[in-house]
Amino acid sequence: MTAPLAVRGRGVRHRFGGTVAVDDIDLDVAAGTVFGLLGPNGAGKTTTIRMITTLLPTPPGAIEVFGVDVARHKPAVRRLIGYVPQQLSADGALTGRENVALFACLFDVPRARRRRIVGTTLESVGLAEVADRTAGTYSGGMIRRLELAQALVNVPRLLVLDEPTIGLDPIGRAGVWDRIGEVGASTGMTVLFTTHYMDEADQHCDRIALMHRGRIRALGTPAELKAGVGPDATLDDVFRAVTGDELGSDAGERMRDVRATRRTARRLG
Ligand SMILES: Nc1ncnc2c1ncn2[C@@H]1O[C@H](COP(=O)(O)OP(=O)(O)O)[C@@H](O)[C@H]1O
Ligand SMILES: [Mg+2]
Question: From the CB of 252, is ligand 1 less than 6 Å away?
Fold first, then answer.
């Protein structure tokens, strides 16, 4: 593989006391792509994301972001990343503009440019007109777009979103994805996100890793993963094949074939 990797993980693991949250996973996210980390609650998605974003310790050599070792160069990695956490991070008592300006400050956006960048970022997520209302008056979808603006204000090369659309209605979800798509297309930004909405992953991902109990159980493009289960399979079927008790069944066997094929392809390519 010659294209630079936005994220390269090898043998990534993390335990909380006796709980193995992430169990020896390898992860390649190619630059400029949209990569989805899928899986049920407790699969280990957030833990993986927090390791990539330097919020949990990692051993040297385990994770690189654009070739920079996360364990050795935390501040450098943080400058490359924009992060929208799973739990809400916007302050309802501040206006939209104040919320984004706070992040511009945190991320050392130069003072002379701050005003302009905050304005254009709010515009890019479709909140210019409501920027001076307090965030407490925003809908769920608007709050999520405000958080997206907070993560975009330092013009990251890698945008990391943990469950960006959880709890939103279909219009709110579409609004968030439209903005991510537009920003991605205009900047070439790499996007890494987690979800448990299969339709969303199918629609927006170049590649998907399906996690279950700390491990990656399936990896590929949405089309490859679906073809691995059978004709007319949906990602929901893939999800069931991977997370159900049917791993020894035909679907499970075929899923392993997809992975083996991918590994061979990587070796050859
Ligand atoms: N801070 C923590 N302390 C103890 N256990 C945790 C903590 N965070 C996550 N876990 C456990 O690690 C596992 C993976 O959790 P998480 O990464 O949050 O999964 P997901 O994001 O896929 O729902 C779960 O069993 C969860 O209970
Ligand atoms: Mg999570």
Answer: no
